[in-house]
Amino acid sequence: MAATGALFLAILYAVNAQTGTERPVPTLSPQINAAPSLTPTIYDAQAPDPQKCPGYTASNVHNSTDGFNAELTIAGSHCQAFGNDIDDLLLEVQYQTQDRLNVKIYPRYIGDNNRTQYLLSSDIVTEPEGDGHTTEQTSRLKFEWTNDPTFQFRVLRAETGEELFSTYGHVIVYEDQFLELATDMVDGYNVYGLAENIHDFHLGNNHTQTFYAVDAGNTVDGNVYGTFPFYQETRYHEGKETTSHGVYARNAHGQEWLLRDGNITYRTLGGSFDLYFLSGQDESGSSSALETIRQFQVDCVGTPAMQQFWTFGFHQTRWGYENISVMRDIAKGYKDANIPLEALWNDIDIYDLYKDFTSDNNTFPAAGMQQWISELHQANQYYVPIIDSNIYAPNLENESDAYGPWERGAELGIFIRDPTTGDPYYGNNWPGFSSWADWLLPESQDWWTNEILSWFKDVPFDGIWIDLSEASSFCVGSCGNGRLNENPVHPPFLLPNDPGNADFRYPEGFNISNATEAASASAASASQASMLSTTTLIPVATTTTQGRTEPTPGVRNLNFPPYVINHVQAGHSLLKSAIAPNATHNDPSNTTEYELHNVYGLQISNATYHALLSVFPGRRPFTVGRSTFAGSGRTTSHWGGDNTSTWGSMFLSISQALTFMMSGIPMFGADTCGFAGNTDYDLCSRWMELSAFFPFYRNHNVKATISQEAYIWSSVAEASRRVMAVRYSLLNYMYTLFYHAHTKGDAVMRALAWEFPQDRSLKGTYTQFLLGPSLLVTPVLIPNAKTVRGVFPGIGEGTRWYDWYTLKEVQAKPQENVTLEAPLEHINVHVRGGSILPLQQPGYTTTETRNGSYSLLVALDSHQTASGSLYLDDGYSLVPEQSKLVQFKYADGVLSTHINGTYKSSPPLANVTLAGVPGHLTGLSLTISGQPCEVGEVAVDPGDGVLRISGLEEFTPEGAWEGEMVMKLSFD
């Protein structure tokens, strides 16, 4: 780390430090007057009850072919619960598609100057449109309403009358800073989604999901980085098919969803009601969670971007790689241990004083970076650096502090403004006082593209890691006003590894597996705490508290709105660790961060995506962003943020991943082995195994902790080699899953309940998950374990499961928790009967793997059938010139392929393995492209229900999938 202030080593900001976290809690500006200290509104007994407001009455109904609109007029005296009542509203109901119904409620009179206060622009967040031919009569959904006693509505299934959403018995509240809508729910309802959250996958009926993008680590049950106001509900009906549906609320304001027994209350700090109800029904009319997820992605926010093939390899990074020599050593360490390594990443260590687009000439000089990255590329490996979302504001009184990116941005006038001065907003982040781009301006995109293009000439990266995109600021308000002459300033807290901020935390169970080291860490931690208690600390400003303020007619209090969302920051303050809500954009409406805070991450990801299209014309951009919003998956992927090296954090990463599969960002992964705190060989082995079945696979930790590269411990190294052999052999399967996600909105990782919807016992299961429809993963999630328990859904109803490693069929009872052997280097993986998996010989890199021979694994179901698919293209083109889709089918003893497309993959087909065969092989014939093949030299290895056929390379010398194949087998 480069020093950023002369007193850096002498001053301990311990009051505000969070030991071992990458993004610590900031100090607070003394310039901001704190509001009265009150608890969050949901716990404030003195707060008004919005349901005592008068509601609205509907009138002047105008019908159209696809719905109707009406006027809503307040039905009594002003309530002023948490804002100023809006008297006149418009209601629009549109049957947009057969399976999607839209309900909009917004002010009847909106001037140009406050339009964005209520209406979320389709230029920022996709606004679904109707298909132009669906009517009330052809829709599978039905809208009903009444004025008795005030306007209320409900949404039902047209065919069965099943009520999906109902405000009956509740009033609608619409104020300039507070909206409320409540729906009754069935008893014991099962709701999932509302990402991003660190919570049980099954949300339950005692949970408050707050949405306000925040830089506060992985806070359990609190708001995190992303905003996806979408939930999917599953209902189990006695003796009938399970049903599912979805609700998406298109609103970017700070908001929360109060899940309570019997109802859900939806509250926002502004905007409009823009609700999309999804039937979850497929072509046959049956509804399911998977179809609901497809409809959300395809119809509402857009399907996720297709990823480059190499991005599915294993990635390594750390905050604390000090120089290029260290990076070379990391690559060598992996190679020497024979653990596949696809890409190396850099955290903020690469920069000169933490400033974007710079190089620390002492540790990461541009010439050295170019040489080193060239070495990576020659080895078919890749490089990804970080970009923070803030732009350092230079000290204009110091010529040596010139900083081109900010100066060019300031000249264009593209920075978010301080509303009191009209100057750029100056918050604080890693390099010091900084500004943030206003993505509402097209000039911002041009500027951003130019900066990334210029940086690429010095650092020829392969993708971009976008951090702090909430957007995060380490102070309260525009704290750099009049203080730029102090830049560069040290962040207002201790950094990891600063004196007094060593991290001595270890995972649960460490005191058992390594009692001696655990005792030493405990003693060192106590000694550090004692030292800090006797250290003279500089004064720190009193925490700014978000308290409930009284609505004022004609005024909106943006920094302290009357309604207090349950924000995780101290005092629930919206000002803390973020650009202030009253910071102003440069559009004609002077839109504020109050409206746009939650979409900053979406906007910078979009801007980076388009910048990378200029860097790599025609190539799929690879970005990984921290703050995301509904629709972000079209341009970025996501990692789980600042987690901890604990078993609980690893466990909850599964539910976090499943909610992102629902949300349209399947390229998701957690910081493997944990970011903050020290890992150990037990946790890291198990986490490397688990993350191998997440789409994005990266190890990342903070510099205050011990090294955790996979080769550090022999046990972790062996676990990693074994599991990566499995992952890399499955890369084509995973790539094909992404093709289906990109084209059809299919889920990549899947909850067991999604694939087996009739089994009520699976509704809360996420200690296991499926990769696609075919692979069941049962990880060890507790310390010092040698076995793991898991269920095998569908057994007893015709589903068969096979052990991945032995292909032995599982013998279990329906809903039985089976104890499985799980030594430290082993993760249990099972193949679902009815699947055909295209595999490839795993190599050290994805490039080497793509050149390895193919094989097919055919796992037969109870009907002796199976199917699967394989998608192939060049692995990187935004619009591939050639592609190929191979469909596999096994039925009646015949394995066949059906091929569409012209892309050529040269490796041959070497092996075919069948699991669950009915007897001994008595006959085998093979034709390719209609030509019979002499199979006398083919090796056949029968086993217990397993048939292995090898030596097929000679029949496909031009490539495994250049001709359609028919393999006929007969058994006694």
Automatic annotation (TrEMBL):
Keywords: Glycoprotein, Glycosidase, Hydrolase, Signal. Residues 745-837 form the Glycosyl hydrolase family 31 C-terminal domain. It is an enzyme of class 3 (hydrolase). Its EC number is 3.2.1.20. One of its GO terms (molecular function) is carbohydrate binding. Belongs to the glycosyl hydrolase 31 family. This is alpha-glucosidase. It comes from Zasmidium cellare ATCC 36951.
